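Hi W.,

Here's what went into the run:
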Amino acid sequence: MDLEQLRLLLEQVASGETGPDEAVAALRDLPFADIDVAKVDHHRALRCGFPEVIFCQGKSPDQVRRVARELLENGDVLLATRADAAQYQAVARIADDARYVEDARVVVVDRRDDPPAEGRVLVASGGTADIPVAEEAAVCAEVMGNDVVRLWDVGVAGVHRLLAHQEELRNARVIIAVAGMEGALASVVAGMADAPVIAVPTSIGYGASFGGLAALLAMLNSCAGGVTVVNIDNGFGAAYAAAVICKKIYSDEQG
Amino acid sequence: MDLEQLRLLLEQVASGETGPDEAVAALRDLPFADIDVAKVDHHRALRCGFPEVIFCQGKSPDQVRRVARELLENGDVLLATRADAAQYQAVARIADDARYVEDARVVVVDRRDDPPAEGRVLVASGGTADIPVAEEAAVCAEVMGNDVVRLWDVGVAGVHRLLAHQEELRNARVIIAVAGMEGALASVVAGMADAPVIAVPTSIGYGASFGGLAALLAMLNSCAGGVTVVNIDNGFGAAYAAAVICKKIYSDEQG
Amino acid sequence: MDLEQLRLLLEQVASGETGPDEAVAALRDLPFADIDVAKVDHHRALRCGFPEVIFCQGKSPDQVRRVARELLENGDVLLATRADAAQYQAVARIADDARYVEDARVVVVDRRDDPPAEGRVLVASGGTADIPVAEEAAVCAEVMGNDVVRLWDVGVAGVHRLLAHQEELRNARVIIAVAGMEGALASVVAGMADAPVIAVPTSIGYGASFGGLAALLAMLNSCAGGVTVVNIDNGFGAAYAAAVICKKIYSDEQG
Amino acid sequence: MDLEQLRLLLEQVASGETGPDEAVAALRDLPFADIDVAKVDHHRALRCGFPEVIFCQGKSPDQVRRVARELLENGDVLLATRADAAQYQAVARIADDARYVEDARVVVVDRRDDPPAEGRVLVASGGTADIPVAEEAAVCAEVMGNDVVRLWDVGVAGVHRLLAHQEELRNARVIIAVAGMEGALASVVAGMADAPVIAVPTSIGYGASFGGLAALLAMLNSCAGGVTVVNIDNGFGAAYAAAVICKKIYSDEQG
Amino acid sequence: MDLEQLRLLLEQVASGETGPDEAVAALRDLPFADIDVAKVDHHRALRCGFPEVIFCQGKSPDQVRRVARELLENGDVLLATRADAAQYQAVARIADDARYVEDARVVVVDRRDDPPAEGRVLVASGGTADIPVAEEAAVCAEVMGNDVVRLWDVGVAGVHRLLAHQEELRNARVIIAVAGMEGALASVVAGMADAPVIAVPTSIGYGASFGGLAALLAMLNSCAGGVTVVNIDNGFGAAYAAAVICKKIYSDEQG
Amino acid sequence: MDLEQLRLLLEQVASGETGPDEAVAALRDLPFADIDVAKVDHHRALRCGFPEVIFCQGKSPDQVRRVARELLENGDVLLATRADAAQYQAVARIADDARYVEDARVVVVDRRDDPPAEGRVLVASGGTADIPVAEEAAVCAEVMGNDVVRLWDVGVAGVHRLLAHQEELRNARVIIAVAGMEGALASVVAGMADAPVIAVPTSIGYGASFGGLAALLAMLNSCAGGVTVVNIDNGFGAAYAAAVICKKIYSDEQG
Amino acid sequence: MDLEQLRLLLEQVASGETGPDEAVAALRDLPFADIDVAKVDHHRALRCGFPEVIFCQGKSPDQVRRVARELLENGDVLLATRADAAQYQAVARIADDARYVEDARVVVVDRRDDPPAEGRVLVASGGTADIPVAEEAAVCAEVMGNDVVRLWDVGVAGVHRLLAHQEELRNARVIIAVAGMEGALASVVAGMADAPVIAVPTSIGYGASFGGLAALLAMLNSCAGGVTVVNIDNGFGAAYAAAVICKKIYSDEQG
Amino acid sequence: MDLEQLRLLLEQVASGETGPDEAVAALRDLPFADIDVAKVDHHRALRCGFPEVIFCQGKSPDQVRRVARELLENGDVLLATRADAAQYQAVARIADDARYVEDARVVVVDRRDDPPAEGRVLVASGGTADIPVAEEAAVCAEVMGNDVVRLWDVGVAGVHRLLAHQEELRNARVIIAVAGMEGALASVVAGMADAPVIAVPTSIGYGASFGGLAALLAMLNSCAGGVTVVNIDNGFGAAYAAAVICKKIYSDEQG
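Here's what came out:
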């Protein structure tokens, strides 16, 4: 039951078509959420202008293709993460403008004439092996309407490389710091900038990195202020959080 | 060497007082950071308007008092976290307007005529036992210049209590979700709002909560978008990150 | 807004006192939960006949006393768990019929003339050191309206002690198996009975019991069917779950 | 030695055919279990009406087929879990009415004219990826004689979806809540219903879900009463526990 | 029902005093264990000649004293482990020949004229800090009837100290190797001797010893054959296992 | 330098051929171990009569074959563990009497006319899936000269199955208890027998068994005396330890 | 901006071509690191004479080949670690003097006429299975300019094998101790030598070695002084640290 | 038996006083270690010039005093670590020149006229709370004969503070990097210097630092070469390892 239906019901009560008792029953049992709550997440998507996202892991190429078609019929943007080549092929068959960012395992279809550009997100990554996760974050942030600056290979064992990019660090609205191994990048970056830093630990490293646990714990224990953390290898999650922040800034600026 | 000293040196080069070689040597060995980099964190503090913070744990009351005096001589705000009663007493002796938020173990001195109010931060907490951490987050966010709305005791076992506060959730610029035990609050809150959600796991719970590990993992694995996480019981860290976001929004709005 | 108020509003709409638009606004913004959802947990408590429970840990004696007074003014049963002697004394001052089960750290006031007795719950415990948790489970289950049979000290290193009590095991509606160390009791008990078995690992044991982790994992991996597990040392939680099952059986039998 | 044989022996003692000493020796050495204890688990199966179950993991298709044939010669129901396609084919060769629930990796043969239906079990699952485990729970619960209601995709990031199904939640005798990632579903569901909730953590999630550990800990720490937990991905175990509860209710109702 | 009672019953059946049916009922319901099984652990204690042991942790001095009195009235040996000074005092009040091994926190009363001496147990310990656990093992093994050789402070960082004691290592029937930190003692000892080696990890060490976990894992992964492991700090457990082995050897030698 | 060489040297000193100083130098620098210590492990093998063992994991079939040939040229017994089919084939090519115990992944060649039989080892296993590890223990114990009794499928969920085999349990000199999942078998068995119990946790189980950790911790925390533990899945290690114990008993009996 | 450019700028200031203000601006914004800091790691490599290293894991053969070509055009040494056969083939196509150390998965090209030989590094390894990691350490240390002594298969279960090599242990400048399982080698070696010991835990072992965690913890808890630890299986890291130490010794000796 | 005794024996053989057979027996059974091996650790101490160290934890003041007296009677240096005030007082009573470094919990008596000074050790620490561990490292390194440079409070969140000290970093022979929380200091320092870096994780941090585990893992996973790690909070161990390296360098320089 949406607002229109609610209004209709109440008009029927007003007109006597429907008795109060009957209306009480209808309202009591109605899925309350349907009036407004149910729209929360749609609402959120709408306000943020984020496209629907397909998380491909564990889906057959066929399933991915069907969801993709549905989304493209109703929208002009498609973002599919954790996509392998076969899943990309499946999408490409129905959308020949689909782009596959192989490193990041992301499929993008973007048919917007004028993609929104609410904020500048800087994505920094520690080592070459972290790039797939960093690229996932970067592509997703772009599709969600942000200008993205990529700063690859600025690990803390060579701090000067970071120092050379202080300007970019200061211009960012949100910084995403992607690093495996000892995960120190987030702390160093946060010490140099005044933007919020979203840290993404990666599962890169061997031995006692324990699948990213070392970097995760390091980032949670960052001695620098303003650092928050998402799940291991979760480039998409960091991009989403960054986009929410930028969107919030943008809408506040507008409104 | 600060900018003035750099200018002086260069003027001496220009006037011939100092030869280029001598200047190369001076510049080569100068602690580069001192020109500008060294000011990064001061700079950050200045731009964000955050007061210096004393982390009291492991400090003697006397040590706390001395740092506090120094800060108050040079500023009009003081924030001391993880303070016990003795540490508060030590501060109170030199600042009779010091306020002790016992639950949160925070000491505040605020002598600003017109405290900044850049953004609205909503702090939600799951259970009664989480309030000290939540209150630490709330007080710190306030001192850092934000309007704070407190939503205590809105744990997920009674979702309706959260539903009753959807308006507040939607009006927040940043939401801090504080919860121990199963830490599900962050997910539920993020599903209802469009603001960035900073999740603070607490060490509340017994048995297999393992000192907050259960809540921490739950929050990192949140199925809701836009959730980032700070360390267990780190109310201050969440407030700082929230303040950085709000400040960023505010300064973007102004500038 | 409760059902009466909803009905009132709708009658006003029917009578023209309130226009449909006004009613839409009222209904749209009303905390939906308040109609019915908000009563979920009260409702649950009511249907199950469970008294309110005070979790004393981290509360001052004074706080406990105030909550206790409020509960006793509105009800005839009080259950306070994790209570120390001081907290008990605080309750005893306002209720001289308060009983303190020291082992279990539970305070009980029961003024019901005719306490409900929906089901027979058997609480078995492995070793002497597990008794506090087992007793917490037993007392709580009793207060929640169940006949409780205690089977103390029936650890698996002497299986014959369990075999001697097969009759009781078979007569139980729900069995709570409390054990620390290797936590094998749950499996052995579940192999002998046809009632659901709720396993409570305890933190008893030294060295590699890791605060109950050993027993917890053992119980989760039980090779016997029908075993479910609650948190370490959570006697109250097991009692609550047992009471929910018995209540469900009882109400289904009645209705 | 069964009861008949025991009676026979005693009659021989009564008739003088066997002397008391001889009988003492026979009874002393007899495997006591054989009188009655040995039947405990058969007995349990009989009373609960549960079919024998084949756990296929680690068995060859041939082994599965042989066990299946034996079971079907002596019964009219077959349940095989963790079965892959080859194992299903092996069963299908001897039972062309075998049904393969691929998602859940369960093989079912049900030749009962009138399957028992003791209770209504509601199986709720958080995300699409949790469905295989949820479906395992659902199919197993059905074969064990329960009406099953499936509630897929009701994760906590969209609480309204759960709110829309409150009626079903309240009508269930037992609820099985299946969720990976942050595992919060169990708490939210338990807060809305008055039935016992059996929580099944799944290994779904990436990074710091650590193979289901995050969800497992969250569920063990549920702040909602009445929640008990089974092993990670153990849909069958939850179904079995649910069936034991329902059977207990049913038999108590009947007798 | 013991064997005498069983015989009596069967004689009554033989004489017609009791009918077969009545006897079936009596036998069917009798706690089977009581005939013989119930004596298993007593039996074990008897055959091994081990005194009853009081595990003092968590017991009040008064409780310890009462159990001690009961044991001493029926036997001539008392062993109490994990005893603090107050618990020892309580025992001393009823047994002035009680001896307190303070390091090992063990209380011993030994009134046997001729204590058994089945085997030679060598207890080796790595560092000074491991001695309390080693001494617990040594004293317990002695009270359980073994000659004990102590080899303190033979850690692996000075292998020559061990080499100097090869003779003792070779003469032992069972070796108990007690070590914290990296727990390597068990491997080195097992490489030098042909007796079974029971390894006891201790919680000694700091930082990443994680309460004995480091030593425990090291011992479980010993590259030397013949090493088995007991729980962290479980000197008593090692002594008990050693005594069981020696007893077995002894009784086999005798019989 | 062996004993003969040492004697020779000393005779040269006695005869004046070699001066004392020269001899001091020779003795000081000689690898001490070579006199006697170096023979320790050979010695051990000799006294215990254990064949050399090939641990196949990580070796090529060719490597296995070469080691096997060498061993068989110098002995009449061969034991190869963790062997796959290819490795077995490689051995079979040079020893057509090689036997492959597929389940246990063990290759055996036994050409002894009169294999030693020092002790009776009982190997009990919990579930069908534990049999490979149990069989590894059994075969290895046999080859090392023990009579082995196998007790498969006596898990604790059906305690009566164990009760039916009390006689065998009591006749064993050493018991090896192999179990995965909750690993309770060791405790129950130790409560029924008076032989030393060596517990082998297996990696069998799913979800929170964490690769055998659950069983390992349970066994380390056994509430029954006389239980010691080896590494997860280490059937060979348990057999070796059992053989060491039996050998010790046997040699003590003989000598 | 390098030193030349800095000098140029200052000369322009001296000559009046550039005003002081302009120079301040240029210097303020210049990436400071570029003057000197940026050369830190190159500098380090230069002083230590270490070749550039390619970490092959996760790179395509083609990528490895391209980096290799670049390195060989500018230098005369190439070291590639974690290389598989295909990656080696790729290098061999452009450098037919490439050598593949298969065990260690290392590719080496060494065209130096006169490789430096600063120090003697002894690499000791516990078991056969540890050799790949030990060999990686050995080869890398050689390429980095050290004489390397290999001591394979000197595990602690046969301490005499180590004792026989005391001379080599004492002659080493740095010792690398590589061991899996219980990782005790580092302690025993450190007790025999006076050189710094770098311990490398390996992931060798089964069951509760947990991928090298057992050895890692053991090494961190070494009771012997002078032991430091690198990551699990990190033979390269140990070699690098050893080379840094030797280089430091060498350069101090020279200078 | 020391060398003198060995010589005496051989002279007796030469003189015929002792027969070769008798000497063989004496030598065969002599504790080999006593000739030379037994002196290994003394030898080590002598060569390195390290004083004996008392590890005070778990020792009574009286025990500490007795060991201290013994050491001071035979030497002119005393180092006692993990000493509390009472233990210091006990030492002060027998050595009024004892110095107590309270922060570091270290007691030092240094009566050398001319303490050795082999190398320059730089100790860097991340935060104020890490100073006790860093100071322990610094004091111990000094007593072991090194010049020590302290660099306190140079955490990675303000990298410029480190940059300002590049000269000191480059002049060090060994660097000890002490840091808790995210432990990133080691990586950043190693990237700036060419000395070996010994990393000491501290237990400083809250929540998910898990007693130093976060810093430990980070340091083990350092992306910078030349970093090795010691146990959590083990300042003494790092100092010892640093001293071993410096000693090695020094002795190589001399000899």
